[in-house]
Amino acid sequence: MTTDVETETSAHGARLVVVHPDAGVLAEAVASRLLTRILDIQSVRTPVHVVLTGGTVGIRSLAAVAAHPVRDAVDWTGVHFWWGDERFLPAGDPERNETQAREALLDHLPALPAQNVHVMAAPGEGVGSPEESAALYADELSRFTPDGATHLAFDVLLLGMGPDGHVASLFPGNAGLAAQGATTGVHDSPKPPPERVSLTFSAIQAAQEVWVVAAGAEKAPAVASALAGDPVETTPAAGAIGTRRTLWLVDLAASSTSS
Ligand SMILES: O=C(O)[C@H](O)[C@@H](O)[C@H](O)[C@H](O)COP(=O)(O)O
């Protein structure tokens, strides 16, 4: 069973809530949607800029992309991968979002050029703090940002969401919420590890499509709160909005108090 509900059309474009039966089907559907979106864009232009997320459903979706029969229809030389956030841990640490994304998908794409994978620098890779890593990432983003634009208009930006309503590493009440610029260092994250690097709201909201992916009953109150438009200070996911389209891709359990 899948339910599509057009909940809002505004200056920010359409918002669509799509409910899938469970987390497994959700991950498969995210993979199919992502591949279809990349193929659609590649039929008219290149490159395609995709922002990856950490978290259970996000990584499961990447594994589903790797196993998808349509995977090899994509011209991976024309796809750039970015991250919405990173855990500030040494390179290769199994808890890094980068490590998990490489294992789930990127290592399975031999055609993907190494320079198309834009990682947030780890401690020891020329940076000593989340702020330094964030600054380096802002520089990297600016290399791909057209003259006159403030931010790169990512084609698809994936976000997982925590039960507290956090997206990327923008946590309720955390100083990172108010950060200016494209990126921010994050300290005192309630979700381990405490030090992280994140895109800011303004960078996220420059994406053409933002897809929030969430599964499980523990996420239901935050889904409902974000869809109701509660303040981002208490429900950061309410600020997950794309310029063209915002998709909420959830399973039945996560949607239970919002439908
Ligand atoms: O680095 C991270 O931890 C994330 O990017 C974070 O924002 C994550 O996406 C959510 O916490 C959802 O994670 P789950 O799907 O595992 O609940």
TrEMBL record:
UniProt keyword list: Hydrolase
Glucosamine/galactosamine-6-phosphate isomerase domain residues: 22-248
Protein name: 6-phosphogluconolactonase
InterPro entries documented for this protein: 6-phosphogluconolactonase_DevB, 6PGL, Glc/Gal-6P_isomerase, NagB/RpiA_transferase-like
Record flagged with keyword Repeat: no
Family: Belongs to the glucosamine/galactosamine-6-phosphate isomerase family. 6-phosphogluconolactonase subfamily.
Pathway: Carbohydrate degradation; pentose phosphate pathway; D-ribulose 5-phosphate from D-glucose 6-phosphate (oxidative stage): step 2/3
EC number: 3.1.1.31
Domain of life: Bacteria
Reactions that this protein is recorded to catalyse: 6-phospho-D-glucono-1,5-lactone + H2O = 6-phospho-D-gluconate + H(+)
Known function: Hydrolysis of 6-phosphogluconolactone to 6-phosphogluconate.
Molecular function terms from GO: 6-phosphogluconolactonase activity
Taxonomic path: Bacteria, Bacillati, Actinomycetota, Actinomycetes, Micrococcales
Alphabetical list of SUPFAM superfamilies matching this protein: NagB/RpiA/CoA transferase-like
